[in-house]
Amino acid sequence: MTSIFKRLFSVTLAAVLILSCAFAGLHALAAGVVNTGDGNNTVSLTFSPAGGGMIYYKIGSTDSRTLSRYTNTHAVGTPVELTAAPRNAAEFLYWYNVYTDRVFSFDETVTFTLSTATQLYALFSEPDANFHYVAYLNYAGSIIYSNDVPTGQPVPVPSAADASVPGFTFLDWSMTSTQVQQSATAAVVRPRYTVDNRPCTLSLTNAQNVSGAGQFPLYDTVYAKADGVNGSGQPFSCWKDASGAIVSYERNYTFRITKNVTLTAVYGGSVTPEPVIRISDIAIESPLEKVTFFAERSIPDGHTLIQHGILLTSTSAELVVSAAGLGASAAVKRGTGISNESCGTYSLSKAKAVSGTVYRARAYAICENPQGVQMIYYSTVETASF
């Protein structure tokens, strides 16, 4: 491999995937907007093998392969299947997402529906008697360190702070420094954690017709349940949080708890369930120069989740999906979750945050509605600084 990987895999924005739960139901603060891609109902797609190998691809009705860079625009909603195929003695390592600065998948074959500008590299490692590839990842798959290292030479081990995740305590790396140094093949090293022993409380304001309140371990899955009708015969409408924002239209609302939460089951209103996405929490770690935004989603039946994530900026740029750019200098960075389960929690961390700088974040969810149209649902914009 060449020095291009040192540039490609330098990471300033760490995307953190915090667990998710398989359950239908979502929260929206505003009606969705039609996803028009780059403005003309198309989005750009770029992929390339890096370090050896080839890529077999199926894009809509097109079925082919490439040994080099592929780039084109396709209609929003086009199905894509990419397969990384090693050549000669090359070893496939992972797919790397350039827009999000993280590992996209360790599977040789990836499938997705086009919704936003996408640029992927299939990373291969060719055998070399004198060098081997080493990468250290954080919890989310963002690359903390990567390089071609002389065989038998020591490798700088990232610190626990480099791999920190709010609510988790770093234990160690999946390989010791000696194991990394002596590895005859590529070494991709991941952190191991324990969840902090910090209980969180779910409170329900309704006196009747609800259940699920209690104290739970941090990041535990909790279940807020409401009867279909209350004592007055009124039908269930939605769940609201302490600020009055709708968090779900599902009577049996499931989510990962990250802090103390108070919910109210609302009865009596006629509603049409729609996707909900919101910034649910913010963690500021001043000593680590890190700001983390958490997003929660709840997608109702009839809507298919295509992509979700968080948009982040320290400028006045508009926080919309189409504004997300590439590289550390991009005004708007986009972090996307890997799991597309209907209910879940995702977070995005800004590493090397600058004291006094205001960071603005907005969660989004792209869904196909029952009519087959891709819609984008946005949260309100939240800010944080230290």
Supply the key terms.
single chain, 386 residues, mainly beta, six-stranded antiparallel beta sheet, five-stranded antiparallel beta sheet
Describe it for me?
It is a single chain. With 386 residues, the chain is mostly beta strands. 3% of the residues lie in helices and 49% in strands. The chain contains two helices and 33 strands. The strands form eight sheets. Strands 3, 28, 29, 31, 32 and 33 form a six-stranded antiparallel beta sheet that branches. Strands 1, 2, 26, 27 and 30 form a five-stranded antiparallel beta sheet that branches. The longest helix is centred in the middle third of the chain and has 6 residues, at 177-182.
Spell out the blueprint of helices and strands.
Layout lengths: L3 H5 L4 E4 L3 E2 L11 E2 L7 E9 L3 E6 L2 E5 L3 E6 L3 E7 L5 E7 L4 E4 L3 E5 L4 E8 L5 E7 L5 E8 L17 E6 L3 H6 L4 E3 L1 E5 L4 E5 L5 E2 L2 E3 L4 E6 L9 E6 L4 E3 L3 E5 L4 E7 L8 E10 L4 E9 L5 E10 L19 E4 L6 E8 L8 E10 L5 E5 L3 E3 L2
Parallel strand pairs: 4-12, 13-16, 18-25
Antiparallel strand pairs: 1-30, 2-30, 3-32, 4-7, 5-6, 5-8, 8-11, 9-10, 9-12, 13-14, 15-17, 18-20, 19-21, 21-24, 22-23, 22-25, 26-27, 27-30, 28-29, 28-31, 31-32, 31-33
